[in-house]
């Protein structure tokens, strides 16, 4: 109660300064005909005006749109013309975001990470805190944990993988490669990946079978610059891309979508060549040091790699290749089986429902992503896991739901890991 009251006071004070999302409202729109869905899709293509926080693909399914005060009337006129029903969801998006940012900052002050022991699940942690946790794990479990600096972000942040083994010293085991925080604003992703690391390392006995014949290699925060930037203020909370600037004809915009920057059907469908777009594919493939780091990890482990799992949010999907075309890989049944293992385990645990399918079939094409890249590079199982929505924007589950979400996500990851281990028991590497 006291914290809430304090946040409200601070939030109101902070509101006195000009905020980017001041006056923005969130509307829920519910199309009921194919024509109405089509009309909303056309609006969503004008992404600068109509920021669709979620999309509606089937009639009756609602979508959320973020609208500035300038275009509110225009937006409503279009909806009324098309007879699309709508409802106000958040009358002051700027203030809601502000309160969330302040809450996170306050919790960080109230519960600082001590540098030893497990990271909590009561709040979101910074890239620096996550790296400190990895260091601590390496110091406490030297026989089972190895850290490797695998590169630097554009702004110079250290990117580290943690390799988790069972300490038996056997080389050449199959590998599960996992990463988080490709997209800056998807905070629940690194939180879940860090929780998974904690389970594998600190709850080792319970999860021993996951490490018997497999090693896990994890990069918890891919887009470290973007992740930190999204924590600065409500104005930057929705940041998605990296932070490397690109100037075209005198106009500078920051960042590239790291999940459009991979050199596999680079700049294909669902990727933008506009350097100011949120799905900008970059000036060239692998222009982003963060994408290069993931590419190199994929190649380093492809001779032992069985599953690549990249954790995003939101939407509750388990997505497998392809994401650049509507064609399905020949091994779609194997992929589907592993995805279902994850979805069923989560459903049994918490009742939360995931949809399993190819990226293109569930979300439409988005080319140049890491999951397709890993799959074509030799990982037989490759998934993007889109965690559940939360908060106002979908990307912002409140700190109070971190615990529930990371635990549920771990149940899914563990079940996928187990199914992969059952399906691919033999060592892939010939260099044993
Ligand atoms: O668009 C993306 O990069 C992912 N969704 S998100 O909302 N987290 O941005 C989905 C990627 C799915 N994979 C491919 N399209 N290859
Ligand atoms: Zn994402």
Principal-axis shape equals globular
Q: What name does the CATH topology of the largest domain carry?
A: Aminopeptidase
Hey, roughly how much beta strand do the residues contain? 15-25%
CATH superfamily of the largest domain: Zn peptidases
**Distance from first to last alpha carbon:** 59 Å
Number of helices: 12
Helix content estimate: 25-40%
Largest sheet: 8 strands, mixed
CATH class of the largest domain: Alpha Beta
Q: How many structural domains can be distinguished in the coordinates?
A: 2
**What is the CA-atom radius of gyration, in angstroms?**
21 Å
Ligands in the model, by name, code or SMILES, are: N~2~-sulfamoyl-L-arginine, zinc ion
CATH architecture label of the largest domain: 3-Layer(aba) Sandwich
Please tally the β strands and state the result: 14
User: In what order do the strands lie side by side in the largest sheet?
Assistant: 5-6-8-7-11-14-12-13
Structure description:
The structure is a single chain. This protein has twelve helices and 14 strands. By secondary structure, the protein is α/β, with parallel strands linked by helices. It has two domains: 2-100, 2-Layer Sandwich (Alpha-Beta Plaits); 121-229 and 283-431, Zn peptidases (Aminopeptidase), CATH 3.40.630.10. The strands form three sheets. The protein has an eight-stranded mixed beta sheet, sandwiched between helices. Helix 1 crosses helix 4 (93-110), helix 6 crosses helix 12 (402-423) and helix 9 (332-350) runs antiparallel to helix 12. The longest helix has 22 residues, at 402-423. The chain is globular and about 65 Å long. The site of N~2~-sulfamoyl-L-arginine has 14 residues, from helix 10, helix 11 and strand 14.
């Amino acid at each position: 109660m006291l914290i809430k009251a304090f946040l409200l006071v601070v939030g109101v004070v902070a509101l006195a300064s000009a905020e980017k999302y001041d006056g923005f409202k969130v509307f829920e729109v519910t199309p009921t005909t194919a024509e109405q869905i089509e009309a909303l899709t056309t609006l969503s293509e004008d992404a600068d005006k109509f920021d669709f926080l979620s999309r509606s693909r089937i009639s009756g399914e609602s979508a959320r749109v973020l609208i500035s005060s300038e275009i509110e009337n225009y937006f409503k006129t279009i909806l009324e013309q098309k007879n699309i029903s709508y409802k106000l969801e958040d009358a002051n998006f700027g203030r809601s975001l502000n309160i969330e940012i302040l809450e996170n900052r306050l919790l960080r002050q109230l519960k600082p990470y001590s540098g030893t022991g497990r990271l909590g699940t009561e709040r979101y942690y910074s890239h620096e805190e996550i790296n400190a946790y990895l260091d601590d794990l390496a110091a406490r479990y030297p026989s089972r944990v190895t850290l490797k600096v695998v590169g630097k972000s554009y702004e110079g942040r250290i990117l580290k993988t943690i390799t988790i083994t069972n300490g038996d010293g056997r080389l050449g085991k199959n590998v599960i490669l996992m990463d988080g925080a490709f997209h800056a604003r998807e905070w629940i992703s690194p939180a879940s990946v860090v929780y998974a690391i904690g389970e594998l390392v600190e709850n080792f006995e319970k999860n021993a079978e996951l490490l018997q014949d497999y090693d896990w290699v994890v990069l918890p925060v891919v887009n470290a610059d973007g992740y930190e930037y999204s924590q600065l203020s409500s104005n930057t909370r929705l940041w998605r891309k990296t932070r490397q600037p690109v100037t075209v004809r005198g106009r500078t915009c920051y960042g590239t979508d790291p999940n459009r920057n991979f050199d596999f059907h680079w700049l294909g469908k669902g990727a933008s060549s506009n350097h100011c777009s949120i799905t900008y594919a970059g000036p060239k493939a692998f222009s982003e040091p963060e994408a290069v780091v993931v590419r190199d990890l994929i190649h380093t482990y492809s001779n032992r790699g069985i599953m690549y799992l990249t954790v995003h949010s939101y939407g509750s999907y388990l997505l497998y290749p392809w994401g650049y075309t509507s064609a399905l890989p020949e091994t779609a049944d194997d992929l589907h089986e592993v995805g279902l293992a994850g979805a069923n385990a989560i459903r049994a645990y918490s009742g939360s429902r995931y949809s399993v399918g190819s990226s293109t079939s569930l979300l439409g094409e988005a080319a140049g992503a890491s999951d397709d890249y890993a799959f074509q590079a030799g990982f037989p199982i490759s998934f993007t896991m889109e965690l559940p929505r939360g908060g106002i924007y979908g990307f912002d589950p409140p700190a109070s739901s971190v615990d529930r979400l990371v635990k549920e996500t771990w149940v899914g990851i563990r079940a996928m890991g187990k199914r992969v281990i059952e399906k691919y028991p033999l060592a892939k590497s010939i260099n044993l």
